[in-house]
Amino acid sequence: MELSKRYDPKPVETKWYKFWEDNGFFRADAKSSKPSFCIVIPPPNITGSLHTGHALNNTLQDILIRWKKMQGYEVLWLPGTDHASIGTHVQIEKALAKEGKTRFDLGREEFLRYAWDWKNKFGNRIVEQLKRLGCACDWSRLRFTMDEMLSRAVREAFVRYYEKGLIYRGSYIVNFCPRCKTAISDLEVKHKEADGNLWYIKYPLTEPCGDKRAITVATTRPETMLGDTAVAVHPDDERYKACIGKMVVLPLVNRLIPIVAIDLVDKNFGTGAVKVTPAHDPVDFEIATRKKLEMVKVINEDGRMTDKVPKQYQGLTREDCRKAVIEDLKAQGLLEKIEPYRISITHCERCDTIVEPLVSLQWFLKMKDLAQPAIKVVEEGKIQFIPERWTKVYLDWMYNVKDWCISRQLWWGHRIPVFYCNDCQEVMVTRTDPKSCRRCQSTNIRQDEDILDTWFSSALWPFSTLGWPDQTDDLKKFYPTDVLSTAPEIIFLWVARMIFSGLEFVGDIPFRQVYIHSIILNEQGERMSRSKGIGVDPLEIIEKYSADALRYTLTYLESQSQSYRLREQKFEIGRNFANKIWNAARLVLPYLKNSGKSQSETQSSVLDPIDYWILVKYNQLIDLIQENLAKFNFSYVASSLYRFFWHDFCDWYLEFIKPRMKAKDPKAIFTLKEIFSGFLRLLHPIMPFITEELWQTFQFSQSSIMLESLPKPILTDERDFTKVERLKDIIVAVRNIRTEMRVEITQKVPLLINCPDKILQEFIFTQKNLIFELAKVSSLNLAPHPPEHSSVSILNGLEVYVPLVGIIDIEKERRRIGQEIEEIKQELTRINDRLADKNFLQNAKPAIVEKEKERKNSFTERLNRLKELYKTI
RNA sequence: GGGCGGUUAGCUCAGUUGGUUAGAGCGUCGGUCUCACAUACCGAAGGUCACAAGUUCAACUCUUGUACCGCCCACCA
């Protein structure tokens, strides 16, 4: 079989993915007796398409899965998608907006039909994209958060929480998005700084208090004054002590409101007096709760003023109302001053609308008792975060976690399973929909309108996907799962919630290790964003460079840092690597294809030093990969494979053995086969396609490389390793001289090597054909003393001389040698200083001291030789 | 305001327990179409490891502080 000169990944990648899938290689067996290894995929949103973050995260998971499978585990990578309640709403509503419609024009039923259609049409797009990436997911277990089975889990969880008294309903201040028309959690908003003002407004006192006739408050949101129900000052603030308990007249509204004292007020900010708008500010809400103040809701869910404000403001938007209020205050002379001020404005993460904090009736999950065990398992190391620094991030949030607002005023999602009797107001929370009121038997009942936060179902993902609440075989075999790999931004939203949910419902941790991968930035250091059109598109990269190249480059760059910058050019690393492997395969294919089976026989005989040299490197590689993959050092693993294959195996080993290979030396063939097949298996988790293609081409086994086990180290001889390292030094020295002296390749130049080590000398002599092969220098002699006129190159104590047979510029050579002498002198000074240091001799490890002495000797010898040489020219 | 990262060659980044002369890829320069690969091969140039102090015989590596860049969190009216 002939291989083309360049690797063409396209047909290869489609062919083998289909082969793996058709043969059921991705499918897990819950009845297997092998130990299990399970990863549940962070379910991508049905609205999404593959971006670089997905590409990275799923590549890493795939590497772990394929690796563990080759290690002999029964692996399950469980895939699925998330209904992404609010995300999907925003997408669909955008589409509706183009037709001039809102979701309210369609109504709940119609909207849900529309959404399901949408899901059926586009929801699996990302699944197809994951296949192109090569992901070894068990597609027979594909899940969706709104599947019947998972919805049952959601309902079960809600009911259990409720029955335990952990779920309650109440009016509290929440972030409300006027566009999405729903409450959103603190984690779903983002803060943006902007230029704003600090407005100083005078609130007249009903009676003078000391020398004061009015209290001035400072605010960034003047329109909210219409909902003020108090003015607060710090209890220790001398300026206002006399005023505490007095009343002021709320301007424009003419409501009498009290002056209260509370330690939440910062004496040093503004005037030290703060207006209190309990219905629209979280701190004010707290003040009002503690001081039992009235709450007046002046802004509605749509961002407009309510009927609780004077007529002229009713129905105005927040922005228009602000202008009007300012005008009116000015007219009344109550606006004391305006200062420019940087303010932080809260936006809806999904649609970027400015969020309004307001009081509304919502469902909450009590967090205190749930958090305790979730803290404990992480503190005790039962769940481990990698990199470790994220542990603290998780714990800090968990220590201060607040109750979770789980209700959303949306339609796409799991409807809250709470039913009300319209006749007797009985509240029912049940596992199946009730037909009638359990108390008065009335059939006039209704379900709560709200749905659950999308993360409520995500929190159950590691076990709902395995069949919980049933005790399925899957759940028994694969729970707790092993690794969760995800992005840092969802540690609170998702990871934390999976942990307490798993402990609560299954009674065990959901996973043992959490790997938090890097954030990929574009060339300018900005976050990649498809909507902004910045960054690279992984599908385009697969198209242009191949999935293997995409995977390799992403893995190569993944080094547990917070983030890294990526540009398209980087994928050349992966593409070129694949091509290099391909071409090495082309070279060795004819010799390995029908190499016979007398391996055990060959193995027992003594191999060539060169073979032992590469085997030492190979053994190191096997160990290092094992060790570092267990520590999630992806970059290290990828780069060691690269270095080994390209720079050890191709650059040196293949070049060394070309003559032996062509002569079909069985020792060379044996080593070659061992290394090449082993390397393919080591690389397979990262570059599954090309490795499978070559595995099949070489017919290393009857089946897929996926089903093979990882290679084991081979017995080798370490002494030969050092010899070959020395030989390499010589060759490099020769090449060096050749380039510098501009010796033509065809030109025959006598070469002399001074080598003090007798054994090495002999060895080099036996290998002189190799030097010929590589350095293209035609004759080699070992010389005890250098000839008078010669160029020298020295590496690691070996000296290589090329006699100056009129091929170089003598002056230039003098300068070069002079320079080298200077450098050596400097280094010798440093070494001597160190060796003269008593403390160093006392404290340093003996090996270090020995090394230092050796260095001194070799440098001194070298210096003397160079000095002599310098004189002779 | 608090916490966490980062600062190493022109660029993007490694640097595994403190110990020879700090590495890679890309880019640059010079030389090669050498019978696997020009998506390649050979060679070279290029770094006072952000700054300061400390610990140590020895610091890119450990401690403290400073500066700048970035991320996250927070009740910055």
Topology (SSEs and partners):
Blueprint: H1 9-22, E1 36-40, H2 52-70, E2 74-78, E3 80-81, H3 85-98, H4 103-106, H5 108-122, H6 125-133, E4 143-144, H7 148-163, E5 167-177, E6 182-184, E7 189-209, E8 212-219, E9 230-233, E10 247-250, E11 255-261, E12 273-276, H8 282-291, H9 318-331, E13 335-348, E14 356-365, H10 368-379, E15 384-386, H11 390-399, E16 404-405, E17 407-408, E18 418-421, E19 427-429, E20 445-447, E21 451-452, H12 454-458, H13 461-464, H14 473-478, E22 481-486, H15 491-505, E23 511-516, E24 519-521, H16 538-545, H17 547-557, E25 563-565, H18 571-592, H19 599-604, H20 609-630, H21 634-662, H22 666-683, H23 688-698, H24 718-741, E26 750-754, H25 758-766, H26 768-775, E27 779-782, E28 790-795, E29 798-803, H27 810-836, H28 838-843, H29 846-872
The structure holds one RNA strand of 77 nucleotides.
Keywords:
single chain, alpha/beta, four-stranded antiparallel β-sheet, four-stranded mixed β-sheet, 29 helices, 45% helix, globular, RNA-binding
* Total DSSP helices: 29
What structural class do the secondary elements suggest? alpha/beta
Query: Largest sheet at a glance?
Result: 4 strands, antiparallel
Q: What percentage of residues falls in helices of 4 or more residues?
A: 40-55%
